[in-house]
Amino acid sequence: MTQAVATAFAGLDRLVLAVSGGVDSMVMLHAAASIAPDRRPALLVASFDHGTGAVARRAVEAVRRTSKELGLAFRGGKTDRAVVTEHQWRLARWTFLRGAAEEFGAPVATGHTLDDQVETIFIRILRDAGPRGLAALFAESEVIRPFLHLRRADLARFARARQVVHVEDPSNSTRSHLRNRVRHDLLPAIARIRPGFPAQLLSIAKRSADWRSRMADIADQLDAETGEDGSLRIARGALRGYDAESLRALWPSLAARANVVMDRRGTHRLAEFTTKGVTGGSIQLSGGVEVLMLRDHMLLRRWDWRRVEAARASRLGAPAPRTASHAGRM
Fold first, then answer.
1. Residue range 222-313 in CATH 3.30.465
2. CA angle 251–253–258, rounded 5-degree value
3. What is the per-residue burial (b if ≥16 Cβ within 10 Å, else e) of 95-133?
4. What's the rounded Cα separation, in Å, for the pair 74 and 215?
5. Is the C or the N end of the chain the one with fewer CB within 10 Å?
6. How far is Cα 246 from Cα 109, in angstroms, rounded to an integer?
7. CA dist list (Å): 237 to 60, 78, 222, 226, 270
8. What pLDDT is recorded for position 287?
9. Poorest-confidence range of 44-53, 57-66, 164-173, 196-205?
10. Could you give the CA distance from residue 12 to residue 44 in angstroms, rounded to a whole number?
11. Where in the chain is the domain with CATH 3.40.50.620?
């Protein structure tokens, strides 16, 4: 474990360790601390309390205490609102981790394993993800994952041998979460019938990651420019000649340059708009994104719903929506 972590962290000056208190991330913490001080980057241990109760608080406290024992800097965070879904937990956690990384001036490292990758691919298949999404954790990323080639059982053996203190979250066994149903029920059932199924999922992810990388290379060669406001301008001439199928492959890579993640429906709509849209036209996509067809280029940007509603009301001859300061007045 120590060698895997040392190899993954080599050449880095600073690093944020995302440690939940579970066995995988606590193994990463201990392995990182065991690297010789003159060979390891400056480390900040970051742990986030999702506000789910006593176990979550105890996990963060265990991380804080262990970090102190190992002589590593620690930063804790906690959600300031009620979150109840896996997606909300992930968003809140990553908002905290990215904030810590930005202040510390370093990338984030997580304890994800090969088993996490298999589960993620399977979940994305269930959700009808395209090839870009099926790359899952194999996709190029700024996140460092030293254990992505190791199994969860490998880390568990290390934890037992080194007596690594960790906190078991009881929510990891409840079937109310999709990932737990996949982990404990669906994947084991399929693997009993088809033992090679996990390896097949990993093969799909590797091919998808290669495909995603090639699409990113093509997108980088197009005449596109990212604005200071996060918008993206693409010359219409650069997209001319691509059919709808090719555009469905290219647009997600282009949108990623503006930190926009496109779903399947939005990708199909935007491909059609690119080939059939007219100057002055626009479409709205999920996630508060709009794309405008201008004379020489297409503009992808975040949209203000008040501005969109005002334009819609103007076309229909209705009064524009009131701002929040006037809401509720008679």
1. yes
2. 95
3. ebbeebbeebebbbbbbbbbbbbbbbbbbbeeeebbbbb
4. 39
5. C
6. 34
7. 53, 48, 10, 17, 16
8. 79
9. 164-173
10. 13
11. 2-197
The pLDDT of residue 73 is above 90? yes
DSSP letter, residue 261 = P
For residue 264, count other CB atoms closer than 10 A to its CB: 15
Q: Is the dihedral of CA 222, 223, 227, 230 positive or negative?
A: negative
Average pLDDT in the 302-313 region?
64
HSE toward the beta carbon, residue 71, CA cutoff 13 A: 7
Measured CA to CA, the distance from residue 155 to residue 39 in angstroms comes to 23
Specify the pTM.
0.80
Task: Report the alpha-carbon distance of residue 109 to residue 17 in Å, rounded.
Answer: 5
Distance CA 60, CA 290 (A): 40
pLDDT value at residue 1 = 82
Domain 2-197 in this protein, CATH class: alpha beta
Please state, for a pLDDT cut of 90, what percent of the chain lies above it: 57
Burial class from Cβ neighbours inside 10 Å (0-12, 13-18, 19+) for residue 215 reads: buried
Q: Per residue in 124-179, pLDDT tens?
A: 999 888 888 899 999 988 999 999 999 999 999 999 999 999 998 777 777 878 88
**Is the distance from CB of 152 to CB of 113 less than 8 angstroms?**
yes
Q: Give Rg (Cα) of the chain.
A: 23
